[in-house]
Amino acid sequence: QSSVPSLTSEPSSIMLVPAGDHYTMMDFATAYFREAQSMQGLKGTPAEKKHAADLVQYTKVPIQASLLQYADSELNELSTNNFRTLMRFMGDQSKPKNQNEIDCIYEILQLCKEKENLHDEIYCQVIKQVTHNPNQESLMRGWLLLNLLTGYFLPSNILMPYATKFLQLASVDPSSTHHEIAKICQSNLRKNVMYGGRRHLPFPVELEALLKGRSARRLQILMPGGVEYLTRIKTFTVAKELLQEICEQMGAGEEEEMQEFILVAIRSKAVRPIRWEEYLHDYLLEDDLVTVTLRRLTWKTPLHFENKIYTEVHYGQVLWDYLHGRILLKHSKEMEVQVGILAMLQHWAKTEEPTSTLSREELMEYTPKSLQSSIDAQALQNQVVMQLRTRQPLQPRDAKIQFLEHMMQLPFFGYNIYYVERVSDDTIPVPCFFGVNKEELIVVDSTTQVISRVIPLKELQRMRTLQPVSEGGLYGIELNYGSAANPKTMWIELSQAKEMYHTLVVILDKAEL
User: Fold this and answer.
1) Mean pLDDT of the residues in the chain
2) Can you give the residue ranges of the MyTH4 domain (predicted)?
C-alpha cells in the first residue's frame, strides 16, 4: 500500500461537497489508513464499520505508527512524534518543563512546512482527535490547530473532499460548541485554494492571542488626507477583503473601481504594494513598525464626489503627490499660472473662512518642492493674492473637487512616477523619470519632460529585481519586453526599485482579472 499522494502542483480548484453519506472520514480511513488494511477480510461487515469508526475518533493513547502507510521509516517516526506533540498541545499528555503550548504549535506547523507529504497525515491526526473528544478544553485546542492548518497548508487532492465534508458536517451541527470555528476552517480552506495560504508562520504574540480566544487583531489604516480607518483583521484576512470593506465605506463599492485601489505596507523607507490575494498578517511584524496605507493606483473609472471620505482621500493623495514631485510638472509661464490657481484652491480647501491675503511661507507650502527654486515667488504671490481678493471663495469641499479636476488635466496625471538614476540604454539621458499607469511604462526626460520611450505593458514579457553591484549601491530592475521576433532588454537603477517592481506586479495582476 503506497502513501496517499501529497498535494500536486495543481491543487483542487473545487470545494463542492458531494451529497449523501459519501466522502466521510470513515470512508477515507477504510480506503487509506494503515490499520484498515488488516480488516480486508471483514469488508462490508459491522465489525469493519466499528473498526473504521474507531480509527477516526479521539484516543487517549498515542498512536504507535502513522495513520497512513509510509514506506519511509523516517516519515513514520515523524508522524508518531507529531501525534505526541499534538496530544501535549491539546492537554491530553503532560508537557516537558521546557515546552509550552506555543512550542507545540510551532513544532507541528514547522513539520508541515518542511514535509509536504505529511500534510494528509497531520490533517487526519487532528481530525481524529477532535472527533468525539469528551474534553471541551482539549476539543477547542484541536479546532484551534485545525484553524491554523486549513489556512496554511492544503491536504492532497485525494483527502480534500473528505476533509471538506468533515468541516461541512461539523459546521451545521447546532448542538456542538465548534460549529462556528468549523465554518472559519471552511473559509480558510477556500482561501487557501484560491490564494495559496499564508507564507510566514505566526509570531508568538499572534498565537498567544488565539489561545486566549482573541481571533481578530486591531489594525489602523492610514488613508490619504489624514483619514484613519480602524478595523479588525483575522488570522487569514487577505488584502482584497479589507479593500472591499474600505471601498464600500467610501462609496466606491463597484468592482471595477475597487480594483483601482491597493493597500501599501511601509516600514521605514521600504514601501511595498500588497497584492489582492496576499494575507495581511504576512506583512504585519511583531514590533508594530509596519504601517498600512491606502492608495489609488490607477485612474480608469471616473471620479465621483458624493461621499465625503472619498473626496478627502482622493484630495489628500493627489495633493501629497503634487507637492512631493510624484506628478511631473514642466516649468513654463502657463504652469506658473496653473500653480497659482492650485495654491488658491488649497488655501480655500483649508477653512470655510479663508483670508484674502497669503504670506510667502504659506505660498511655499502650496507650491511643489520641485518648482520652488525656479519660480518667481513674488510674481506668484501677487497673482494669488489678486485672485483671492477678486474671486468669491469656494467652500472647502468644492475647492478640493476643483483642485482634483485641475490636476486631472495635467499631462502626466495618473502615472506612478519614479526617479531613475541609471539606465542600460545609453540613448536615454539620466537621471530621468519612469512613469507607470494601467496601460504603459513611459520614459520622461528630467529636463525637457519629453517622452523618449513608451513600452506598452502588454509587451512586458518578464522582469526581475537586481541586487546592487556595489555596497551601498542602488537596487535595479531588469525589464524584458518586445515581441518574440524582436525581444528587448533594459535594466534601470533607482532608490525605489522594489516599490516600482511590486507596483508593476500589482498592475499586471489586475490586468489579468
Assistant:
1) 90
2) 58-211
